[in-house]
Amino acid sequence: MRRSDRAVADGDVRQDLVGARMRQFRKEQGLTLRGLAGRANLSIGFLSQVERGVSSIGLTALNSVAAALDRPVAEFFNEEPEPVETPEAPEARLPVHFTLTRADNGATEYVSGQQTYRMLSDRGPSLVLEPMLVHIAPGGRREEAYGHAGEEFAYVVSGELLYEVDGVEHRLHPGDSLHLRSSTPHRMYNDTDQVTTVVSVVTPRLF
């Protein structure tokens, strides 16, 4: 099984993990679901479903939850969360104007529900785009339409994708793309029986 296929197949496990981490971090801060929902600008019902592993949560919505809980997004995917470490000197000396990512480098992948996110670039201290290759498995529950700061671009490589923007659904086929201000409520869903692959670029960076 290819790495991307295996990651998609593991979606249910990771979905439970993300929800469990969210509950753990929320309780550590003594927050109720209502309190977290208010901070993250998401509904109580949706966050409750995520914590129970009933619904998945996209990276952009998870980024708002992470900010509300003052946790790095990556910690929601770790089996054993690690304390935040101060960057070492070599990282601080990375070029400020570019990064170079080779195809044979081991790219980081994150799985949340039906979606597998493969990071396409390394960190750059002055860079704001988050380029990703996203594999979206069929089915699953539709996330809430959600708005947030920044911009979002999606290009369909294979499969089909329903992309809802401000309450209007648009069906994207291979070669189609969509670019929006992320403050407009939006969500995407794969209603076919095949995995859909999308090149996605968002701002600000999520990791």
How would you describe what is shown here?
By secondary structure, this protein is of the alpha+beta class. The chain folds into two domains: 3-77, 434 Repressor (Amino-terminal Domain) (Orthogonal Bundle); 98-202, Jelly Rolls (Sandwich). It is 27% helix and 24% strand. The chain has six helices and nine strands; from the N terminus they run ααααααβββββββββ. The strands form two sheets. A six-stranded antiparallel β-sheet has the order 1-2-3-9-4-7. It has a three-stranded antiparallel β-sheet with strand order 6-5-8, with no helix packed on it. α2 (11-28) crosses α4 (44-51) and α3 (33-40) packs across α5 (59-69). It is globular, with a radius of gyration of 17 Å. It starts with a helix and ends in a 5-residue tail after the last strand. Mean pLDDT is 83; it is low at 1-13.
Give structural attributes.
single chain; 207 residues; alpha+beta; 434 Repressor (Amino-terminal Domain); Jelly Rolls; 6-stranded antiparallel sheet; 3-stranded antiparallel sheet; globular; disordered N terminus
